[in-house]
Amino acid sequence: MGGFVTAQERLALELAILPRRPHLVLHLTGFNDLALPLRNGSRPGDPYQTGLRYFQIYGNSLLRTAVENSVVARRLFRDRIAGVLSAREAEILADEGLSDRLAGEIAGVFSSNLHSMYRRCRQEKTAYLAFLQPYRVSAGRTDPAVTEKRERFYDRARRMILDRIGSGKDGVPLLDLGPLFGPESARAWFADEVHLNDAGQEALAKAVYPLVRRETEGLIRERNGAKGGFGTGYVSPRTAPSGKL
Fold it and tell me: Is residue 224 included in any domain, yes or no?
């Protein structure tokens, strides 16, 4: 689901997935929750499209008409928004206290949504496995110093997420895939900052297959009346494999 954060994925689980009564839910997520509050100015947990909708509904009608019908006006408007967002990101990255607070808010919202989705799957007797997305912080046209600061911020928020999930009582089955994708694989496996190409998708499948197989074997045992079943594929975030693929 393109551009979704976990708040939207939680709604999708409730409205579109659980009604289909699946046996197993595989949830690959995380990067949008990390990146959008920093780079798009959205509040942690809020869909970044919300600002666009506000502009469409409540914005200045003359400005909206100009943006929709003039290439020049649209370019000026986009440059203005991009400048505001860049300045806000720079402010966050330059202030350790502000970075910590934002990373903590991201981790809190993300962990709460994951716990809720896991509990709902348990209630429906549906197995659930979650995976934190791998990503590469691509410099591209961005200042390398900004890229380095972004990477530190993402790592900080990611560690906070793993700490919160690991200390929770629910035992949410979460595996951080980041350590499995070493730096040398970045160009070979990524089509952009977060989306994997065909080779990357194959590597990802190989990484998650053992857990999926363990979980499905648990489901079979459950159906046959054996103990175990749901959740047998749990991997603690603190003990997730750290080797490269």
Answer: yes
